[in-house]
Design a protein that fits this description.
four-stranded antiparallel beta sheet
Length: 146
Protein backbone atom coordinates (compact mmCIF):
# COMPACT_ATOMS: atom_id res chain seq x y z
CA UNK A 1 0.00 0.00 0.00
CA UNK A 2 1.17 3.50 -0.79
CA UNK A 3 -0.43 6.76 0.21
CA UNK A 4 -0.43 10.13 -1.54
CA UNK A 5 -1.60 13.18 0.39
CA UNK A 6 -2.22 16.29 -1.69
CA UNK A 7 -3.68 19.04 0.46
CA UNK A 8 -7.24 17.91 1.14
CA UNK A 9 -6.95 15.00 -1.29
CA UNK A 10 -5.85 11.57 -0.14
CA UNK A 11 -5.26 8.57 -2.38
CA UNK A 12 -4.33 5.11 -1.15
CA UNK A 13 -3.18 2.64 -3.79
CA UNK A 14 -2.80 -1.07 -3.11
CA UNK A 15 -2.91 -4.36 -4.92
CA UNK A 16 -6.10 -6.19 -4.00
CA UNK A 17 -5.50 -9.51 -5.76
CA UNK A 18 -4.54 -11.18 -8.99
CA UNK A 19 -7.30 -10.72 -11.56
CA UNK A 20 -7.23 -14.44 -12.32
CA UNK A 21 -6.57 -16.64 -9.32
CA UNK A 22 -5.11 -19.55 -11.26
CA UNK A 23 -2.40 -19.55 -13.83
CA UNK A 24 1.31 -19.14 -14.16
CA UNK A 25 3.93 -18.64 -16.80
CA UNK A 26 6.27 -21.28 -18.12
CA UNK A 27 9.93 -20.75 -19.00
CA UNK A 28 8.94 -20.56 -22.68
CA UNK A 29 5.63 -18.72 -22.41
CA UNK A 30 4.77 -15.65 -20.32
CA UNK A 31 1.13 -15.89 -19.20
CA UNK A 32 -0.29 -12.36 -19.33
CA UNK A 33 -3.61 -13.35 -17.78
CA UNK A 34 -1.87 -14.83 -14.74
CA UNK A 35 -0.05 -11.55 -14.10
CA UNK A 36 -2.85 -8.98 -14.15
CA UNK A 37 -3.37 -7.30 -10.79
CA UNK A 38 -6.55 -5.82 -9.37
CA UNK A 39 -5.52 -2.38 -8.11
CA UNK A 40 -7.57 -0.87 -5.29
CA UNK A 41 -7.65 2.92 -5.18
CA UNK A 42 -9.26 4.69 -2.25
CA UNK A 43 -9.73 8.40 -2.82
CA UNK A 44 -11.11 11.20 -0.69
CA UNK A 45 -11.37 14.94 -1.03
CA UNK A 46 -13.89 17.58 0.03
CA UNK A 47 -16.55 16.19 -2.33
CA UNK A 48 -16.03 12.45 -2.55
CA UNK A 49 -14.85 9.44 -0.61
CA UNK A 50 -14.83 6.23 -2.61
CA UNK A 51 -12.88 3.08 -3.40
CA UNK A 52 -12.59 1.41 -6.80
CA UNK A 53 -10.89 -1.85 -7.78
CA UNK A 54 -9.73 -2.29 -11.37
CA UNK A 55 -7.45 -4.82 -13.13
CA UNK A 56 -5.15 -2.16 -14.55
CA UNK A 57 -1.60 -3.22 -13.68
CA UNK A 58 0.65 -6.16 -14.42
CA UNK A 59 3.15 -7.70 -12.01
CA UNK A 60 5.96 -6.71 -14.38
CA UNK A 61 4.77 -3.09 -14.35
CA UNK A 62 4.75 -3.05 -10.56
CA UNK A 63 8.33 -4.34 -10.64
CA UNK A 64 9.16 -1.61 -13.17
CA UNK A 65 7.89 1.06 -10.74
CA UNK A 66 10.12 -0.32 -7.99
CA UNK A 67 13.17 -0.34 -10.25
CA UNK A 68 12.45 3.19 -11.47
CA UNK A 69 12.04 4.66 -7.98
CA UNK A 70 15.17 2.84 -6.78
CA UNK A 71 17.15 4.35 -9.67
CA UNK A 72 15.80 7.81 -8.84
CA UNK A 73 16.68 7.48 -5.16
CA UNK A 74 20.16 6.18 -6.06
CA UNK A 75 20.71 9.24 -8.27
CA UNK A 76 20.95 7.18 -11.47
CA UNK A 77 17.77 8.66 -12.97
CA UNK A 78 15.88 11.92 -12.54
CA UNK A 79 12.40 10.91 -13.63
CA UNK A 80 10.00 8.14 -14.59
CA UNK A 81 6.62 8.23 -16.34
CA UNK A 82 4.67 4.99 -16.58
CA UNK A 83 3.57 3.62 -19.92
CA UNK A 84 1.46 0.66 -18.83
CA UNK A 85 -0.62 -1.60 -21.08
CA UNK A 86 -3.80 -0.28 -19.47
CA UNK A 87 -3.79 3.52 -19.43
CA UNK A 88 -6.18 3.81 -16.47
CA UNK A 89 -3.45 3.85 -13.83
CA UNK A 90 -0.55 6.24 -14.38
CA UNK A 91 2.29 7.18 -12.09
CA UNK A 92 5.26 9.50 -12.42
CA UNK A 93 8.27 10.24 -10.25
CA UNK A 94 10.63 13.18 -10.59
CA UNK A 95 13.58 14.12 -8.39
CA UNK A 96 15.02 17.51 -7.63
CA UNK A 97 17.90 18.10 -5.24
CA UNK A 98 16.11 17.15 -2.03
CA UNK A 99 12.65 15.81 -2.90
CA UNK A 100 10.85 13.31 -5.08
CA UNK A 101 7.50 14.24 -6.57
CA UNK A 102 4.94 11.46 -7.03
CA UNK A 103 1.98 12.03 -9.35
CA UNK A 104 -0.83 9.47 -9.71
CA UNK A 105 -3.78 9.51 -12.10
CA UNK A 106 -6.50 6.87 -11.88
CA UNK A 107 -9.33 6.73 -14.42
CA UNK A 108 -12.34 4.53 -13.87
CA UNK A 109 -15.67 3.65 -15.44
CA UNK A 110 -18.71 4.83 -13.52
CA UNK A 111 -21.12 2.83 -15.73
CA UNK A 112 -23.95 5.34 -15.45
CA UNK A 113 -21.89 8.52 -15.94
CA UNK A 114 -18.84 9.63 -17.92
CA UNK A 115 -15.49 8.19 -16.89
CA UNK A 116 -14.00 9.80 -13.80
CA UNK A 117 -10.39 10.59 -13.07
CA UNK A 118 -8.77 11.00 -9.68
CA UNK A 119 -5.45 12.83 -9.51
CA UNK A 120 -3.07 13.36 -6.62
CA UNK A 121 0.51 14.50 -6.17
CA UNK A 122 2.89 14.70 -3.26
CA UNK A 123 6.42 15.98 -2.74
CA UNK A 124 8.34 13.46 -0.64
CA UNK A 125 11.53 13.87 1.33
CA UNK A 126 14.16 11.21 0.70
CA UNK A 127 13.01 9.25 3.77
CA UNK A 128 9.35 9.51 2.73
CA UNK A 129 10.27 8.31 -0.77
CA UNK A 130 12.07 5.31 0.76
CA UNK A 131 8.89 4.53 2.72
CA UNK A 132 6.88 4.82 -0.52
CA UNK A 133 9.36 2.49 -2.24
CA UNK A 134 9.07 -0.03 0.60
CA UNK A 135 5.27 0.00 0.13
CA UNK A 136 5.74 -0.83 -3.55
CA UNK A 137 8.22 -3.58 -2.67
CA UNK A 138 5.75 -5.13 -0.20
CA UNK A 139 3.15 -5.30 -2.97
CA UNK A 140 5.71 -6.99 -5.25
CA UNK A 141 6.45 -9.54 -2.53
CA UNK A 142 2.77 -10.26 -1.97
CA UNK A 143 2.00 -10.47 -5.71
CA UNK A 144 5.09 -11.69 -7.57
CA UNK A 145 5.28 -12.35 -11.27
CA UNK A 146 4.03 -15.86 -11.93
Amino acid sequence: MVEIIDGKKKMIVSVDSYQYIRGKSTPKNFNYDANWLNVAVAYADNDVADRVVDPCLMTTELEEMVEALEAILDGKEESYISDFLEPYFQIAFVRDNVRVAVVVHFTYDTTDRPWKIWKAKQFLSYDEAVTFLNGLKRMCTMFPCR
